[in-house]
Amino acid sequence: MSETTNILVVGIGGQGVMTATEILAEAAIALGHDAKKTEVAGMAQRGGVVSSHLRFGKRVLSPQITPGTADILLGFEAAEGMRWRHMLRPDGQALMNVGRLTPPVVDLGLYEYPADPVASVRAAGTRVVAFDATSIALGLGEIRLGNTVMLGAISSYLPFPAEVLEAAVLKRFATRKPALLELNRRAFAAGRDAAANASAEELAAAVAG
User: How many domains does the chain have?
Assistant: First the structure.
């Protein structure tokens, strides 16, 4: 990665895209980085598509990520991850949740859901780590934990220790909802494990191929 780290987080309203970006920014700031972020939400509260830009480093002048410069694409929803693939650097990393949550534009007939978003992104030459964050969250008893699962997944791809990001996640619940501390701790660890397993499987497939 360059001196400035560019992360694009995309998904559907209600998945916690903006909250995830805020937590990533808080973790970066805690380490002394300058951080800038911006969001674009289309009917976010109604399940519309959401994209959030985060840039952090020694000095950041603009929050906007230009096409072809994102270091990491964090796709809370696979089709949205595919739609924003062009924002990644040629050697960028995509992390995608394969748990299907259909965007409203599909239900309205404005957009045909792709048969296999992850395969499409890989076919374009992008490195992809894909896992079912939605099922992991449901297995822990709360679909909203998908946000923390995704943060756990990205933690191994950041230019700072995973513990820093985990601390930023748990800080959110330490005073307001302490009962959720352990659940979020487990969700973060599950996301790390899911990404590690998916990465190992991808590497094995590449070697075998």
Answer: 1
